[in-house]
Write a structure and sequence with these properties.
This protein is mainly β. The protein has a single domain, classed as TolB, C-terminal domain (Neuraminidase, 6 Propeller), CATH 2.120.10.30. 3% of the residues lie in helices and 47% in strands. It contains one helix and 26 strands. Strands 2-1-26-25-24-23 form a six-stranded antiparallel beta sheet, with no helix packed on it. Strand 12 and strand 13 form a beta hairpin.
């Protein structure tokens, strides 16, 4: 499929420049391999972009037809073996990409019960946890694939991550905005306040600081281990930050309205990693010509 190629701003390892890249349309989520590629989920492509070595290219392009794989991809993660996972609400499925770059369904629709997968994370054993906004449950999917199992009810969850103790951390639009869930499915409240306006995804650092992308606040929050929230970064160039992920010690954020991926430094400074021009809005429909007035039609007849 022919696509227009444009200059995209690239900045990696402190070196900025221009690279030729196809246009992102509406990038929602992000997953990255340490010292490897960054995968960007694009809701309107629809599909996945791969960003590596300063180049952005389509990794997988789904069909525009509803209920086909990755027609409505919404989230991504990297599994315990470094393979890309993608959650798709059009097919209510979680896919793992094989060595040929093809998505393979993991639950195969067998009583999976997953509705709208909003976020994914993986434990050390490779078990996949799916944050489902529709059912408001977190599901477990075996590492090798198979039927999804309900693990714990988590309310209107938006984002999910896991720590080195295999505890899930969930950001929610419910009464308590951050929850922590133990391996035996017990829920603990981390943040019982409502500092976030519209939280999306969540990640942790090694010191158990949590980072939350807040779309409406145009901000990235940092929540320390005591539960104190502060804004790490706020305002332009952030417009609607949604996806957030680590690549090594680099904190990456994807913003669909800015049509960009940014790196957030420890002091909150933002650097553009890759960006595409904002898609042009659709042209307004052409105005229909007004029918001639009756008097005008009579005048036309007289002239004849």
């Amino acid at each position: 499929m022919l696509r227009q190629f444009v200059a995209a701003v690239v900045c990696l390892s402190g070196v900025c420049g221009l690279a030729q890249a196809a246009d992102m349309q509406y990038p929602l989520a992000i997953a990255a391999i340490d010292n490897g590629p960054v995968f960007i989920i694009d809701r309107n492509l629809p599909g996945v972009w791969k960003f590596a070595d300063g180049k952005l290219e389509p990794y997988f392009e789904g069909s525009k037809k509803f209920r086909t794989p990755l027609n409505a991809a919404r989230c991504a993660a990297i599994d315990h073996q470094g393979r890309l996972l993608v959650g798709d609400s059009a097919t209510r499925e979680v896919y793992r990409f094989n060595a040929e770059g093809k998505p393979e369904p993991l639950t195969k629709g067998v009583n999976n019960g997953i509705g709208t997968p909003m976020a994914l994370t993986v434990n050390k054993q490779g078990v996949i946890f799916v944050c489902d906004l529709e059912t408001q449950w977190i599901f477990k999917v075996p590492a090798e694939g198979g039927a999804a199992e309900r693990f714990v009810q988590a309310g209107p969850c938006r984002g999910i991550t896991i720590d080195d103790q295999d505890r899930l951390w969930v950001v929610s639009h419910g009464k308590n905005q951050i929850l922590r869930i133990t391996p035996d499915a017990k829920t603990e409240i981390v943040l019982d306040k409502w500092p976030f306006q519209f939280p999306h995804h969540i990640v942790l650092d090694k010191e158990f600081n949590a980072y939350v992308a807040d779309g409406y606040a145009k901000a990235i929050w940092k929540i320390d281990p005591t539960g104190k929230p502060t804004k790490l970064a706020e305002g332009p160039p952030l417009d609607n930050p949604v996806g957030i992920a680590w690549q090594g010690d680099k904190l990456l954020v994807v913003d669909p309205r800015a049509n960009s991926v940014f790196e957030v430094a420890k002091d909150g400074k933002l650097t553009t990693v890759v960006s595409s021009p904002l898609p042009k809005p659709p042209a307004p429909p052409a105005k229909a010509e007004k029918p001639a007035a009756k008097d005008d039609k009579k005048a036309e007849k007289k002239d004849k």
